[in-house]
Every structure is written in structure tokens, then in C-alpha cells.
Queue: 3 jobs
Job 1
Amino acid sequence: MVAFHSHEQLVSAVADATFERPPALVANAHITGLSVARALSAHEVPVIAVDRTGDGVAPPSTHVDFAGEVTYPLDDRQAFREDVEAIATAAGTDLVGFGCMDEWVHALVDTEPDGVRLPFSGRAVIDDVLDKSSLYEIAEQLGVPYPETVPLTPETDAAAVTDRLGLPLVVKPALKREFEEAVGTNVIEVESEDDLRDVVDLAAEQDIEIMAQRRIDTVRGRDHSLASYRGPDGETLSLVGNARVRNPLDFGTSCLVERSSEPVIEERALAVLDEAGYHGISEAEFVYCPDREEYLLLDVNTRPWKWIGLPVAAGANLPYAAYADATDGTYEHEGVEDARWVYLPDYLDLLATADGFRDRLGRGDWTALVDGSFEDTGELTTAVYRPADPGPAYRALRTAVGGEEYYCAC
């Protein structure tokens, strides 16, 4: 376990170290960053985890070599750039940057810190993929189905929109992180024309592009995503994950994900990434629409995400594949196997509180979780809890019983 340093202390600690290969700079330092750190550490990559606060679960991990503070890029991008450059200078070698939330990815791309290699596409390509307006234009060109969508502006006729899409409908931003910062969520369910007008007015005040979508009555357990790393040469390492359980059950975040075989998901996702020219780690999210009897493209996240530990456990170490390309190295894998990923706090919460929820883990799974043997098989992995690396789970427990809340869920 390493201490979470102030920026000055972090720079000093890095300067005192000697690196035989470029360290990875992982930002931010919570659940996703922890999974990235573990994936890279498995290949002996030194990891520097940075964040605006030390309250995340990654800093206490034995797989993090250094942890410390940098300026939050949404507060001051130039200061963020200077902080990162100071770390690179102290390391005496290039860093390989891994942004684990949209704002950190954008900050690395936009500020281009000296001494940092980025294993993903530039801002123009990322925006084409992250921005739902341009993403759905690509999908339309390729014949990839997506939810029925109407752009919203202050001049939009709310009555016409509700007549077309029905009520309730959902409102989403073109770029979700800026909307989430302003509103506190990235999806708003609208029940009336007046509610729709209120959301449009709010978005206009914040200068945020939004859109209305027909609400999809999804089928629990049918959501799928393509987890992939696409290299600059187009070579792709991928796995389809099925979000078997969410918390809340209908529209929550994934807490049990399994490897799945859905060729149409892989085909459609890779077609979109290829058309956009994107390279790097990504998650392409699809939801099953029973009315249309097909999978609809919702989103593409151009970065690691919460359950990225699943492809790693299954044999597709996406973070290390990206690192190897960025450092002119090689990554050889022996194929992809079946695996499952669980985020225990949310899953246990459902078992305790959700009426009618049936446990999808068996006695053998629970026994393996309790005695720690799951760490040796690769068939089941966890987001945070690992007996061989107890610091993150301890940090999560402290937070759950009244410690300082981290500023985002991932």
C-alpha cells in the first residue's frame, strides 16, 4: 500500500525511483483505475495513479507504485498539464496515459502534456464517437440500429416531440459528462411536455446539446457490449459482455457481467469503430429492444470502464495491449475464455433489498469468493475485493460505513 501524496510529494517520490520501462499514468484512481492498474501490473508495468482526491479505491492497492494529486482538469486544464509534465520529467522517461473517465481522456488529448504517450485516437475522432449526434450519423450510414432520436433546441416543438416519441421519453446529452456535471445525471426521464420544456431550457442555459429518445422497454439481462482494444493498424482484441444484472435492476449500472456470444454485437460495433477511424480501448453499448426485436446501439465509451476486469480475466488484457502498442512492445494472448465479473457491493445490495431477485451465483462461487480461490481460476473476478490485494476493499468498506464519499461511481 502506498500513501496518496500531495503533488509535490508525488513528484519527489517519482524522481527518487528508477524505471526500466515507461510507467503508466492512470487517471482517475477509483474502481476503473484499479482494474487498469491490476491489468498492467500483471505484466510488471509500473503504475502511477493520479486523482484530485485520495478517496478512491486504487491508491491502497499493491498494484499501484505511486499515487498522488494532480489538478482536476475541469477546474484548470493548464494546471493539469503542468502537473502531469512535472511527473513525466521526474520519471526521466515517457509515461503512457490511461484516462478512466471522459474528462481525464479529454484533458490528456486536449492539453498534450510533453512526455506522455496516448494509446488512443485524437480529439476529433473521439468526439465523433462520444458525441451521440455524430455517432448516430455513422450508425445510420452503416445501417446499425439505434434508438429513435430527436435533437432538441429552444425552438423545438415539445408537443410534436412527445407525439412522435410518446411519454414517458428520455432526454440525453450529446456528450454525457458535461451534462452530468451540470445536472447530476446523464439521463432524464420526462413525463410531460412541461417537463420537456424545462429540460430544454436548462440545457440551453448551460449551452449543452441534448436529444430526446423513445423510451425502450428493455429486457432484463439482455444488454450487451463489445469490450475491445483496436490498434492503430486496425487489429482488434475483443470480447462481448452481457450485463446479466444491474442495480437498480432496470436502468442501473452493471454489477454482474458475463462473457457472451453475440456475433451481431461484435460485427456492428467494429463496423462503427472502423468507420470512425477510432483506435484504443472502448466499450460499445447495445440494448435489446423487444418491440423491434433487435439490438440498438446506445453509446461508445472511448476509454476503460467499470467492468474492464472481465476481458482481462477472460484472457484479453486490453490495457496491456494498448500499453504494448504505445511502447513498441508485443502482447501475445492464448485466446479468450468464459468469465464473469461481479461488483459485490451492488450485487449484495440487490440480494438484500430487491424483491424477487434470484441469486445468479452458486454455492461454489460464493465459497471461492470467501476463501479467495477465485483469484486462481480466472472464471470469476471482482471489481474491488481481492484477498491478495486487500487495501481497496478496506477502503470501500470504510466509505460504506461513513467514510468520505468518492466523487463519481467508477
Job 2
Amino acid sequence: MKKPWLEGIEVVDVNTPVSAWGGWFETFVITAVVIAASFITQQADPFRLSGGFPWAVLAPLLAGLRYGFVFGFVSALLTLAVLGVAIDQQWQAAKSFPLPWAIGVVVVAMVAGEFRDMWGRRLHRLEGAYQYRAERLEEFTRSYQLLRLSHDRLEQTVANSGFSLREGIMHLQSTLDAIDGMTESSLQKLIEFVAEYGALTQACIIGITADRIDTSNVLACVGERFPIDVTDPVLRMALDSGELATLNLLQESEMDQAQLLAVVPLTDSVGEINAVLAVRSMPFFSFHESNLKLIAVLVAHGVDHLRFGTARPSVRRFIASFERAYQDFSRFKLDTVLLRLSGNPEEVRSVHEKLRFSIRAIDFICLAREKDQYVVWAMLPLTDITGARAWAQRVADIPATTAQEWMSINEIDPQRIRSLEQG
């Protein structure tokens, strides 16, 4: 197949064999036509033996130049054979067979044929080299396109994953640290952070009035404002499920009616939907499951931070954080480990003070009471059991008399945490 950049250039495939029958047919036709023309133009001396240019030599010359040595030689033999018959039948006036004339015809045919064969071989080699280079160019072009596409995707991935989820939550908490309450200014900071982290180009947070979406109540926005249709199937799916809804989850018949790419309900850890984040536009390379789930996790943690803040009693804040971690595991399979410490009240209080200054930014700790017994609960989001044990050995010297109980979030009864009392 001819490549687009070779338009207008004749491409010969050297691997395609040329049919010999066409060459022989054309050789016989040329020879016959030239001899017939010689007889028609001068019947008394068709081969011009007595004088003038011997036009009959054109047949071997053309056959040799066109197809090579063998075809030219055969055409010369045919011409000489016809000459012999013509002399024998007295169609051609001659005292005897003109041997010098015959030798000249054969030599012309041989020289022309050899010339054609020599240049044919050279051309064949050039065609082979050209075809090899064309194939290499095509391979290089494909490799270049794949490399460029791979580089673009890598560049986009790197640009879109500058932080881990842990770092994202830490930065979110530091961004909202001095803010308390879900106001328009706090929600504007939240959507700007999520837009930067999740590569959103056009999105808004819409308020809910009397348990219904209020499209006129736009609390925060990034990019150009856009109208919201309450009948949008993505919006309806998010409100019905209370979870992240995206365009690709719709049925094919509903996709044409959707204007939104994704909708994330701003649901706090107690299950109340305070508003919704509607996404209208985002780069194509960012519209994938991992990034959308990342946005949903950040939004959920941001809502909890604005609702419950850090100035609440420690147990209540711990319970709210547990509910969020429990939902993160149920929806997105994000690991969380809990540590329960119990023992002598004085030792428990001492360990609590040590751990309180050693926990990481996204970890939570509280001193609570269980059945008139003081206990310390520590929760380490986005951490498995192995990582949690390593953290405990590194940050604090827990007395041997203090009982330690390690639990993954999927192993604990949520009611056990919900029933904690302030210590």
C-alpha cells in the first residue's frame, strides 16, 4: 500500500514477480508489427538489404531495451528467420543470405539487452534498498508516535499525581485548618483545592434546600459558571445513591441527556448530604476511576473537617473520623488500623500524652472510657497492620503492662466505637 508521503511517486515492489508471458507476448507482437510494416512500406526490399536504414532492426532493439538480453536475442532470431524465409520464397531480393547484416542485427539486440539487464539489476538493488528504508521509516514513524503518546501520558500522569492521597488529605486539613463551618468562603477554598488536586476545569458546589437540590444556590465555583439541569441523569443517580456518580455509569440511552461528567454528594460521616459537587469539564486524561475516587475521598474529608472541625471534644471527633474511615473502606477499600491501649489508669494517661504529640497529621487519638475503664484509641488511616506496628515502635515506648489490641477497620464492630464516652 502506498504511504501518504509517497503520493505521486511510482512504488515498485521488488518482491512481486513480473509475469514472463507478458514480455514474450509483447516481443512477438513488436517483431511481427515491425516486419509487417517493412513489407508494407517496401515490398521489393522489405529488409533494406540494397540500401537505406534497416528498419527491421527496431524489433530486436526495442525488445532488448524493454525486456533484456534473452528477449532481444529471440526477437533477432525471429527477424533473421523471417529474412531467410523471405529470401527462399523470393519475397526479398538477395543473391545469398546476408551474413554481415544478420550479425549486426544480433549484435544490436545483444548490446541493447545487456544494457537493459545491467541497469535493471542496478535498479532492482536500488528498489530493494528503497523498500527497506521505506519499511524502516514506517517502523520508526510508528515507534515515534507510540513513544510520543507514551511520553504525553506519562507527562499527564506525573502532572496529575504530584501528591499521594495521604499528602492530599494533609494539605486539605492544613488549607481548612483555620476555617470552621460550611460557609461559601470555606466551600470555595474546598473546591479550589479539589480542582487543583483532581484537575477540574469547570465545576461548582450546589446547595440543598428542604432536601432538594437548589440549582439557583451556587455556593462555590471554579471555571466559568454553567446552568444545572435538575433532571440531569448523572445528578439524579448521585442523589439517589448518595455516592459518586459518573457519566460512564449511565445507560447508553441516557448519555445523550447528560451534561455533567460527574457528581459527588458532599456527605458527612453521619450520612447527611449538605450539598453536591457537579463537574462539567475536566481533562480527558483525568477522567478515570482512580482520580474520580480520589476527588470523592478528598471532598468527604473536607466536608467532615468543615462540619466537625478540630475544636470539638476528642471522642466526638474521633467517632466522626472513624465513621469517615469506615465509609472509605466500604466504598474504596482504603485500609485503616485501630489501636486500643488499656491498663493502669496512670500509665494509660501517660501513653496518651506521648502518643498525642507523636501521631501523624491525618491520624486521630482519644482518651475514652469503657465500662469505668480508661482506654486510649488511636486510628491510623491509609495504613495496614504492619505499618501501624512499625509506627508504634518508632514513636512511643509503650509499657509492657499496657495491653495492646490491633484491629483492621473491617474487623471491628462499629458500635464499639460509637459507644465511647469522653475520658
Job 3
Amino acid sequence: MDEGKAWTSSQSTHLVVAAGAAARLALFLAAPALCHALERRPELSTPLTSIRNLREGVFIYERGTNPYDGGVFYHSPVYLAFFTYILPVSSYLLTALLWTFADIASSIALIRIWQTRAKFQSRKREFLVAGLFLFNPYTILSCLARSTVSLDNAILIGAIATTAIGHSLPATCLLAIASHSSLYPLLLLPPLVMLLTKESPIAQKSTSVFHVTIQYIALHAAISGLNWILADRSWIAQTWGVIINVTDLTPNVGMWWYFFTEMFDHFRTFFLGVFQLHNLIYVVPICLRFSDDPLFATVILVGIFGTWKSYPNLGDMALWAGLLGCFPEVISNLRHPLFTLTVHLYTSILLPLLHSLWLLTGTGNANFFYAATMVYGLNASLAIVDVMGAGLRVQVKRKASELLLREDLEDHKGIQDSSDKLTDKVWERKGWSVVQFTRSLM
């Protein structure tokens, strides 16, 4: 009977993955006009992730001209080479298959992340992890728009999954590629190095950290060398330079475009430093505070730069939501999940509506759309704070349970469930709750 249930659960995981692939391919084939319309949406594609810009760059490059000389092509040379020599970006069917494969690979990598974290087998949780990512509207729309954020997400999730498994070479290689395509994954190097060296003996930890760091630097330099051969040095200013200096002010769901449109030139450099520092400043404190759980620190940082990077889109939030699905104990300790989901629904309606009022009907102005992006950014920031607080509450519950509830947990030891879920049940039965967690219990 148990084997039959396990087989049914395993089969359901395969079915949800197959259903996600089938739904994407069906939409690609049945509604090509919708897919072409989504390519133009600023919520889904930015100048750095738009397939329309990618097609233009490949077209220019195939005719013997460097696309980075024109000032309108911002994609990484990695994508330029791939879609020139390996897979033609002009092929609608092949690109549809590639983007579908990227989402499927992301869901499988998320399942692997969950499996490395879980201390017990739960096919139901694997089904939920895959389903929540594959059928997230932000994930589906980004895939149909063929925004390269879907490919970026697949590479980054692959880097996190291989890190969680403990394979340093593929992890650092994938992280180096992700850093080249969107730069901000570079901020994930500290927590991922911590995760790779977590099981190393204390005497060898410094050597392991040095080895992994040098490995990443070498791979990053090798990819940079290949990019230099492909596109000379002009690619640096047109990829990383645009991300850092925000020279293209095309509207998106971020906070930067409107702010720097209104900014006087003599203040611009100062505020660029402030905005970029806002992404950087959280790395060290979060890694120190969650040093016992580097994977959770990684998820927090993904949420931060997915919200506050210079060119965000809805696909970045899909990535963060997918990773958060691997932490059910954190989700169960959130304070305001309904509020967060409601405001996300609210902004998903407002963003296209106010953008249309501004640019299509002419009955609004840029302030309308920017107000919606501010609501989106504020809600995402509050969600990150809520998730961080939930993670801290989980830590306090674990420590308090080890000290005070050892006998109660022993009574439930035979139940096939996670330790965190057992802890929540015991706390709920006793009527306890975490009201403050600023002091150490040990």
C-alpha cells in the first residue's frame, strides 16, 4: 500500500512537470499573437532581457558589425554567441522549446534544492514546489514573452541547486555565467561559498573557501576572455556598464527609471552610488545572521536584488517565489501572507492598466505607472522583511524546543513528519508564540 502511494505521488510530480511543459507549448502554438504582444510589455521585458533587442543584436552581428557599438544592445555576449552559432533566435518554434525547457529545468532544480534540505521524503512537497513555480503567472508570462530572465533564472537556480548538492565546479561555472548575464548574482557568491564549505572541517574551512573563490574567479575570467574575443571590449560598457550606470531609462517595474529621469546630472553619480550600495550593503549582515543556514541567506538576497536591481521585471519575483516554496517552515510562520498576495494581485492589474493610460490612451502620465511600481516595490520589500522575520522565528522555535520541549518532541518521534512541523504542532498545542527574537537563547 505504501509503495503504491509513493508511486502515485512520484507520478503526480512527473505529471505536474509534464503539464507545465504542455501548457507552455500549447500557448506558444495556439496564441502566437499573444506571445508577440507580451514581448513588448515593460513588466516582463527590459532592454537587458527583451528578445526583440536580442534578435536585433544577432541580426547586426551576423552582418559583420559589432552590435555593442550602436548603444542599443545590452545582452551578454554569452547570449549573443549562443543565439548566433547554436540556436537561431529567429526560429519561433526552437525558442519556444528552449524557454519551455528552461522553466522545466528550473522546476527540477527547485525539487533538488528541496530534497537536499528535507530530512524526510515528501512527494507531496515536491509536487507543490514544482507546481507553484511552473504555474505561477509571472513564470508563465515571462516564458511566453521569451524574456531572457527565464534563462537567467534557470542558470541561477541551477547554480544554487548544484551548490546545495555540494558540486563546486558546476556551481561556480553556472554562477559565473549568471553573473555575466545579469551581474547581480555576483552578490550571491558569499552565501554560496558558505554553503559549499559548510560541511568542511574547521581546520580546512579557510582552504576550502579559498579554493572555491579562486575557482569562481578563474571561470569568470575565462568567460570574460571569450567575450573579449567575440565582441572586443565594448561589451563591458554595454552590459555591466548599463546595469551600473542606468543609461537606458526605459520604464520597468523598478524604482530607478523615473527617479533618474527626474535627476539633475550633477546629483546623478551620488545617487547611483546610493542605489547600488543599497543592494550591496545587505550581503554581509545577512550572511552573518544566517550563517547556520546559508541557503536561506541566499533566498533573502535573491529577493532583495530581485526587487532593487536597476532593471527588474516580474520574472525576478517568480524566481524568488519559487525558491521560497522550498521553505515550508518559513511560509507557515509568515505574519502577512494574505496581504502580500492581495497587493501582488492589485499591482498585476494596475501595472498594465496605468501603463496603457499613460502611453496608449494619453489620459494619464508617467506618475501613474510609477505609482504602481512603487506599490509593487514596497510590497516586495515588506514581503522580504516578513520572510526574514519568519526565518528568525523558526530559529527561535528550534532552539527553544531543544531546551524546553525535548520530552514533547520525543512523544511525537514516531510521526512521519518534519521536525519543524512537529515543533509547530507542539507550540500550537501549548499556546506558545514567538513575540521577540532579539536575544540569543543559548
